[in-house]
């Protein structure tokens, strides 16, 4: 099986297992509902960071595509870490707003870089 698929399935299984274990711990009274929410959603941010870390390591033949993968990887990595950090430490309303802004900012950086590469390719 492809390494990327195995890694993605491992993340999915880990998040589901963590959610189930945290829900059980909440049901038994060990943790509260906010902790379960923060844990599961914070793992989503770490998964985004993992995907950003893996992205530049895949081979693509074009130098332009390699540049784009590096920028996209960095923006996903940083926005995923900010997202996870906010869900771990910030109040929930701040985590929702700031986390969405961090991931959205990473996507805007990626889209802006795509458009700048496209305009440079047309000009050159």
Explain this structure.
With 124 residues, the chain is an all-alpha fold. It has 4 helices and no strands. The longest helix has 32 residues, at 92-123. The protein starts with a helix and ends with a helix.
Number of strands: 0
Gross morphology:
elongated
Measured by DSSP, the beta-strand proportion falls in: under 5%
**What is the CA-CA span between the terminal residues?**
41 Å
Largest sheet: none
Average of per-residue pLDDT values: 92
Number of helices: 4
Measured as a percent range, the helix fraction is over 70%
Ranges where pLDDT stays below 50 over 5 or more residues in a row are: none
Class computed from helices, strands and strand pairing: mainly alpha
Radius of gyration: 18 Å
What is the string of helix and strand elements?
HHHH
Topology (elements, then pairings):
Blueprint: H1 3-27, H2 33-54, H3 63-89, H4 92-123
Relevant terms:
124 residues, mainly alpha, 85% helix
In short:
The protein is 85% helix and 0% strand. The chain has helices spanning 3-27, 33-54, 63-89, 92-123.
